């Protein structure tokens, strides 16, 4: 099995449920709880800046509106991505990937960068994010790149083949092995509901590390770790803390 430097517990969207997702404030909360790895969602602005946002649209997690990838960074940086979560986060901006890398360096945190392209931008986003990640994470443990978008993963592989990649699946695919082999993935990242113990064994026997999302129940996290899953991605960064043991 290939080298896997990452911890068992990963803070989903930075700091899960304790701060507005995919912001620097969320990463700060994750660090305060002692987490050593964060997951977050990266996409491109219309003018090629890489920033964090989960949805295609701005409405759910900010005071902006419309498709984020159709806006220039000069518009996106005016968006308040904190007030929707709570008054104390008023004015929290959408972070650039470069700012997130600086936080990771400051805290000594590892990263799982989910490449989350806006519709139709998979190849471009995969390439730009991988090239930026190579530069921004220089000298740190390499960020683990993952995506549901196979074009994005393929572009990341071509642009920065040395960065580890993981295939994300929300529904089971029987061709998982063909895809992970072609893209030279080190890991497969699955909705935990897709897994039973036999599938964990099968994936591990194929030489893949396994990350599961989004696991918010400690009993389920313990079960998955006992089965041999490598990492749990959780919103509940307080109850499933960095030292969680099955
Ligand atoms: O990377 C795991 C997980 O974050 C994927 O689902 O929708 O939370 O981005 P989602
Ligand atoms: Ca994600």
Automatic annotation (TrEMBL):
EC numbers listed for it are: 3.1.4.46
Q: Domain named GP-PDE: which ranges?
A: 7-244
Question: Which superkingdom is the protein from?
Answer: Bacteria
Gene3D superfamilies given in the database record: Phosphatidylinositol (PI) phosphodiesterase
Which keywords does UniProt give here? Answer: Hydrolase
Specify the enzyme's EC class, one word. Answer: hydrolase
Please give the Gene Ontology molecular function terms for this protein: glycerophosphodiester phosphodiesterase activity
Q: Which InterPro entries match?
A: GP_PDE_dom, PLC-like_Pdiesterase_TIM-brl
User: Protein name, please?
Assistant: Glycerophosphodiester phosphodiesterase
> Gene name?
ugpQ
């Amino acid at each position: 099995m290939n080298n896997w430097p990452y911890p068992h517990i990963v803070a989903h969207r930075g700091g899960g449920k304790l701060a507005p997702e995919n912001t620097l404030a969320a990463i700060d909360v994750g660090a305060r709880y002692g987490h050593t790895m964060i997951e977050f969602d990266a996409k491109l602005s219309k003018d090629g800046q890489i920033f964090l946002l989960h949805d295609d649209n701005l409405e759910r997690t900010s005071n902006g509106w419309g498709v984020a990838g159709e806006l220039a960074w000069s518009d996106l940086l005016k968006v308040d991505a904190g007030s929707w979560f709570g008054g104390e986060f008023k004015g929290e901006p959408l972070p650039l990937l470069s700012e997130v890398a600086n936080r990771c360096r400051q805290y000594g945190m590892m990263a799982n960068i989910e490449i989350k392209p806006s519709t139709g931008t998979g190849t471009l986003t995969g390439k730009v994010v991988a090239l930026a990640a190579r530069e921004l994470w220089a000298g740190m443990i390499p960020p683990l790149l993952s995506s549901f978008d196979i074009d994005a993963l393929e572009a990341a592989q071509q642009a920065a083949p040395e960065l580890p990649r993981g295939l994300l699946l929300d529904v089971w695919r029987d061709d998982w092995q063909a895809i992970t082999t072609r893209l030279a993935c080190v890991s497969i990242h699955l909705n935990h509901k897709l897994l039973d113990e036999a599938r964990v064994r099968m994936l591990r026997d194929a030489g893949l590390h396994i990350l599961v999302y989004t696991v918010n129940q400690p009993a389920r996290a313990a079960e998955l770790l006992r089965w041999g899953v490598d990492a749990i991605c959780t919103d509940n960064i307080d109850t499933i803390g960095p030292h969680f043991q099955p």
